[in-house]
Design the sequence.
């Protein structure tokens, strides 16, 4: 089973609000089946929701540690900004404000790369924990 297939399905599911899109992978064949509530599209085999041979691909929110990941980035890339970043979390719109701050510091692209790599690592760990061969 190729990780790219799982990764593509993960991005498909994650590029919509949780629950709007779904994907399952057949544990034996590695084949992925997609569904979209909004588009009224569902190629998942009947009964796959309760069949242990199928595994639901997680949404990004299930794997994203949120604030801890962001603080890990700050500690490694701009530790002097840690008090300011922590202060931003005391107000509404923290993630938007932090990203705006990263943009002003010229670190937004570095953050996006870091975040993407960490989420990909977590997806690989999830696959291993589920017994999916990569």
Sequence:
């Amino acid at each position: 089973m190729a990780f790219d297939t799982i990764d593509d399905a993960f991005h498909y599911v994650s590029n919509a609000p949780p629950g709007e899109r779904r994907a399952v992978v057949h544990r034996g064949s590695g084949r992925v089946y997609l569904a979209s509530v909004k588009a009224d599209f569902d190629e998942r085999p009947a009964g796959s929701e309760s069949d242990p041979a199928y595994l639901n691909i997680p949404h990004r929110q299930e794997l994203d540690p949120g604030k801890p990941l962001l603080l890990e980035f700050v500690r490694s890339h701009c530790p002097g900004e840690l008090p300011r970043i922590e202060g931003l979390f005391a107000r509404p719109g923290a993630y938007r404000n932090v990203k705006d701050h990263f943009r002003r510091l010229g670190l937004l692209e570095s953050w996006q790369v870091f975040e993407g790599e960490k989420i990909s690592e977590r997806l690989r760990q999830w696959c291993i924990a589920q017994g999916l061969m990569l």
User: Anything to note?
Assistant: Strands lie at 21-26, 32-36, 41-42, 54-56. The mean pLDDT is 93. Helices lie at 3-14, 60-63, 67-77, 82-88, 94-105, 108-129.
